[in-house]
Write a structure and sequence with these properties.
The chain is α+β, with helices and mostly antiparallel strands and 242 residues long. Among the domains are: 31-94, RNA polymerase II/Efflux pump adaptor protein, barrel-sandwich hybrid domain (OB fold (Dihydrolipoamide Acetyltransferase, E2P)), CATH 2.40.50; 149-239, 3-Layer(aba) Sandwich (Rossmann fold), CATH 3.40.50.11540. The chain contains six helices and ten strands; from the N terminus they run βββββββαααβαβαβα. It has helices at residues 106-110, 114-123, 136-145, 164-186, 201-210, 231-239; strands spanning 31-35, 41-42, 49-50, 55-58, 65-66, 71-78, 88-94, 150-154, 191-197, 217-222. It has a four-stranded antiparallel β-sheet with strand order 1-7-6-3, with no helix packed on it. A three-stranded antiparallel β-sheet has the order 2-4-5, with no helix packed on it. A three-stranded parallel β-sheet has the order 8-9-10, with helices on both faces. Helix 2 packs antiparallel against helix 3 and helix 4 (164-186) packs parallel to helix 5 (201-210). It is globular and about 55 Å long. The two termini are 32 Å apart. The mean pLDDT is 87.
């Protein structure tokens, strides 16, 4: 009888084309169409000048949306379905000026009360990037109500071809750490763990530089075994338990 050794996870590497490619800006377009889905209600009108980051539609359940460009509201389309079946769209003509609506600093948020912080996160329309678009403020609210004391920041790619977490940490380590620090203070966490794969040496070095003055945040380097980016697998690898 042959015994086969059980292998937990498999090693996959498909990042050669993106490993050293910087994050790039999208090509500027003349206009954009923003879809009003769910219970989103527009808060702008035709002819109104809009700045980059300005709120253009608000929802109670559906996360609010903001303009990614500055320019004029050219048209509000209703009754014509797009490829996903949505019938309402706001068309903004780009003025290519990149006029920004608001600028924030990390220090402004560190001392907010949890209620005000959750309201801000909801109003800014921040959602998870996994595809489901789950509102981030609900995740934070639930964790705070359950009195969770540890935050795990998943910097491990969920698929072999992806390299976005790696590039983001390499190029924006300071901002990533500032965001984590805000959550640690507002949620009264005991500590936070940034989980990263062992093939992301450059990202790890950038995190070390950014973490010099943050004693409650640490980096955990894990073996790059697929599917490490899946949250239950990640938790098991960090704490060695389900």
């Amino acid at each position: 009888m042959k015994f086969i050794k059980k292998i937990v996870g498999i090693r996959l590497e498909r990042k050669r084309k993106t490993a050293y490619s910087n994050i790039e800006r999208m090509i500027e377009v003349d206009s954009i169409k923003l879809t009003l889905y769910g219970d989103l209600i527009k808060v702008v009108s035709v002819g109104e000048y809009i700045k980059k980051g300005q709120l253009i539609a608000r929802g109670e359940i559906t996360p609010s949306i903001h303009s990614p460009i500055s320019g004029e509201v050219e048209e509000i389309i209703t009754g014509i379905k797009d490829r996903d079946g949505y019938e309402k769209m706001i068309v903004i003509k780009n003025d290519f000026q990149e006029n920004t609506y608001e600028n924030y600093s990390a220090k402004e948020h560190e001392n907010l009360k949890i209620e005000n912080f959750l309201s801000l996160i909801k109003d800014k329309g921040i959602v998870g990037m996994g595809g489901g678009g789950y509102p981030t403020y609900l995740k934070i609210k639930r964790a705070f109500e359950n009195k969770n004391k540890i935050l795990i920041v998943n910097a491990c790619e969920c698929e072999p071809y992806l390299n976005c977490d790696n590039r983001l940490v390499q190029e924006r380590a300071k901002e990533v750490v500032e965001g984590i620090n805000i959550l640690v203070k507002i949620m009264k966490l005991e500590w936070a763990i940034i989980a990263i794969e062992d093939n992301k040496k450059e990202a790890f070095m950038e995190l070390r530089k950014a973490l010099k003055s943050h004693v409650k945040i640490q980096v955990k380097v894990l073996k790059r075994i697929y599917p490490l980016g899946e949250e239950r697998v990640l938790i098991r690898e960090i704490f060695k338990k389900k």
